[in-house]
Amino acid sequence: MDVSLDKIADPALAEMGKNLKEAMKMLEDSQRRTEEENGKKLSGDIPGPLQGSGQDMVSILQLVQNLMHGDEDEEPQSARIQNIGEQGHIALLGHSLGAYISTLDKERLRKLTTRILSDTTLWLCRIFRYENGCAYFHEDEREGLAKICRLAIHSRYEDFVVDGFNVLYNKKPVIYLSAAARPGLGQYLCNQLGLPFPCLSRVPCNTMFGSQHQMDVALLEKLIKDDIERGKLPLLLVANAGTAAVGHTDKIGRLKELCEQYGIWLHVEGVNLATLALGYVSSSVLAATKCDSMTLTPGPWLGLPAVPAVTLYKHDDPALTLVAGLTSNKPADKLRALPLWLSLQYLGLDGIVERIKHACQLSQRLQESLKKVNHIKILVEDELSSPVVVFRFFQELPGSDPVLKTVPAPNMAPSTVGREGHSCDALNRWLGEQLKQLVPVSGLTVMDLEAEGVCVRFSPLTTAAVLGTRGEDVDQLVACIESRLPVLTCTLQLREEFKQEVTRTAGLLHVDDPNWPGIGVVRYEHATDDKNSLKLDPEGGKIHAGLLKKLNELESDLTFKMGPEYKSMKSCIYIGMASDDIDIPELVETIAVTAREIEENSRLLENMTEVVRKGIQEAQVQLQKANEERLLEEGVLRQIPVVGSVLNWFSPVQPSQKGRTFNLTAGSLESTEHTYVYKVQDTGVTPPQTPSGTRTKLRFPGQKPFKKSLRGSDALSETSSVSHIEDLEKMEHLSSGQEQEALEANSPEQHPGAPAPQEAEQTGTFQNRAQGPEDDRPQMRNQGPES
After folding, report:
1. Can you give the pLDDT at residue 732?
2. pLDDT of residue 782
3. Residue ranges of the chain with pLDDT lower than 70?
4. Is the dihedral of CA 731, 733, 739, 742 positive or negative?
5. N or C: which end of the chain has fewer CB within 10 A?
6. How far, in whole angstroms, is CA 235 from its chain's centroid?
7. What pLDDT shows up at residue 717?
């Protein structure tokens, strides 16, 4: 309650109250400032986007766009951009509608979610011929199989709910997976179910008959019998209707009979299940409709983004399905089917069938085209039904089978077969990467198969609807393959010749690098190279860096690069692929000679540095000695400042100009007296030229290095071949005639006025003559007045 101080009669009390009011005001202002500073400090700890009263929608969407496409300064990435059509927008709308629908009251929400779930389940079962099935919608493709395994465990172990893993310990379950199953599937199941890895049984594929990517049924039956004898319980079998690698389908009909015989749950998954929606279905895939459960992925098949995968199953006990997690009473779990519910209605049956049929037609189109292409092998189980095309480049060696890992030639050593197989692997990897860059909408993938090696896979069922692949893209893909075949065949043919030539050349070492698709890899062994060491070699790195620079300056059609040796740190020269006939001996000799010249030049520079240092020291000693001799010759009196000046005036001394010059070529210290007396500078000994290669090759105008001579080329006509041969002969005659004229011009008999060699020595003149080895050169001496 505020009381006015003016009404207080006592002035002392009024003054005290006034002072108290001012003090309280000061304290309140100080507290207010402290609170404001604490508020600013607290807001400083909050991230920038959350400070203040929030941001507008335009700024938030701009931030999302920058995060999606990256900054302008960053280099654009060549990632596949999904083709989101109108059906894609419908699927994305389903997620927004799901969030909105979740705000409805419970009763209306329950009715709506039940209707969406039942409709979607019925439509999928009818489209993919799976009658009287239930559906479980999940984000991870493997999650449905994990739930099915839980259902199988609860069905076979009645006391599992009460006793838990004690019942599993007494009778261990066994889950059978094909050796061709997708990687990591078994480990995922064990982690989700809490089972040890011995509960997994890997079933090998066929080795003698049938596809090498199909499960061996006879061996599977033997494994089942052995597990039963050991007291184990065969629980579940995962079959493939289109393996993850090559799209092969297991013998599902025979596997179903085997599972019914031993009471095993049969689950089927694979891309070929999409063909169940077509009018014609192969018998092997059609048998999947009789299995206990199957996993479908309609999102990639139909080009629908953010659409869940679906696991269809048959089971009569709703209590067990609820315990296993296949059914749920939560409306949010049922709303997972909303995007697919909207998309299926938008596409209709015709749209669904058209997209799957289009993908199968693309694969058949590529198969028919690749049959007409040489050096391309197609690894297809059934050309009429498989929607996956896997192909590989191969080269037939003379007198042998095609170069494949699985078919070694009888007359070839195992090392040769393995080396050629690795060569084809590197070339196929290069081919796959080239095709992916040239035709990105094809959706190709490069994979390494255990038996066949590196192959290229075309699976339009998983990529065509997303990337918008058309028939013209398949034709372009075939054209790109044909355009790269000459490079592949030529490179593979030159590999062995290059290795043999490098082996025969001194100073060069051939390096076997299975990952390099070019002609080969070579390393120059310098004088101080430790062959047994795998560590980095600085001197060798300098030599190879200079060699790479020299090779690139030649402007040939070959590409050269430097890198570490395979399984080592030493530098090597990698030679790229060749599209035409290359003169391998010339290439190898050029590499050897150039590397040798670089090593000699570097060694000469190191030796010259040492020689110059010693020469400077010797020159200092000789100059000091000359100063002492001059002191003795002039006398001590001439060194006194005043007396020396008087003596020099009466009796001047004629100083002798004695200097020193260092001959870099000879590496010796010489006197400069000859230069000052005769006004002539001695040229010294002419250094010998660095030896070059023994092969000298005349080139036609415009012919690039390392190209074979056009004399034997079939591409030239007979007239042009003759004209080129005549030009070559004229050039050879012209060069030989010029050499003859030069020899005649330098001959003493043709020039009577020229002095003889003996006369040249006596007069002290120099004459340039053809120099032989350094030991055989005549020593030219300067004959001065002293002689």
Report:
1. 53
2. 37
3. 1-14, 16, 37-45, 48, 51, 70-83, 207-210, 381-385, 396-423, 527-537, 566-569, 603-611, 634-638, 643, 650, 653-660, 662-670, 672-704, 706, 708-787
4. negative
5. N
6. 42
7. 39
Contact status, residue 226 vs residue 255, Cβ threshold 8 Å: no
Burial group, residue 625, by CB count within 10 angstroms (0-12, 13-18, 19+): exposed
C-alpha angle with apex 70: 68 to 72, nearest 5 degrees?
140
Q: How far apart are CA 117 and CA 164, in angstroms?
A: 32
From residue 236, give the alpha-carbon distance in Å to each of 150, 252, 311, 514. 10, 14, 15, 40
Query: How many CA atoms, within 13 angstroms, populate the side-chain half-sphere of residue 348?
Result: 3
The residue extents of the domains of the chain are 113-334, 361-397+420-484, 489-529+536-602
376 - beta bridge partners?
393
pLDDT of 172: 92
Q: Is 739 exposed, middle or buried (0-12, 13-18, 19+ CB in 10 A)?
A: exposed
Among 142, 138, 154, 125, CA closest to 328: 138
The pLDDT value recorded for residue 449 is 86
Q: Options 3.30.750.24, 3.40.640.10, 3.40.50.880, 2.60.120.10; which CATH number does 113-334 get?
A: 3.40.640.10
- The pLDDT assigned to 154 comes to 93
Neighbours of 721 (CB within 10 A): 16
Exposed/middle/buried for residue 563 (C-beta within 10 Å: 0-12, 13-18, 19+): middle
Read off the pTM: 0.71
User: Looking at residue 654, what is its pLDDT?
Assistant: 65
Tokens 């190191």 sit at which residue?
Answer: 606
User: Angle at the Cα of 117 (from 111 to 121), degrees rounded to 5?
Assistant: 145
Length of the chain in residues, anyone?
787
- The amino acid at 696: T
The span from the first CA to the last CA of the chain, in angstroms, equals 132
CA distance 68 to 429: 30
User: Across the strands, what pairs with 393?
Assistant: 376
**Cα angle 247-253-257, degrees, rounded to a multiple of 5:** 135
The helix/strand count (H/E) of the chain reads as 24, 17
Q: What is the rounded distance in angstroms from the CA atom of residue 686 to the CA atom of residue 692? A: 18
361-397+420-484 folds as Aspartate Aminotransferase, domain 1 (3.90.1150)
- Nearest Cα neighbor of 214 from 147, 142, 270 is 270
Q: What is the fold, at CATH topology level, of the domain defined by 489-529+536-602? A: Aspartate Aminotransferase, domain 1 (3.90.1150)
Burial class (CB in 10 A: 0-12, 13-18, 19+), 229: exposed
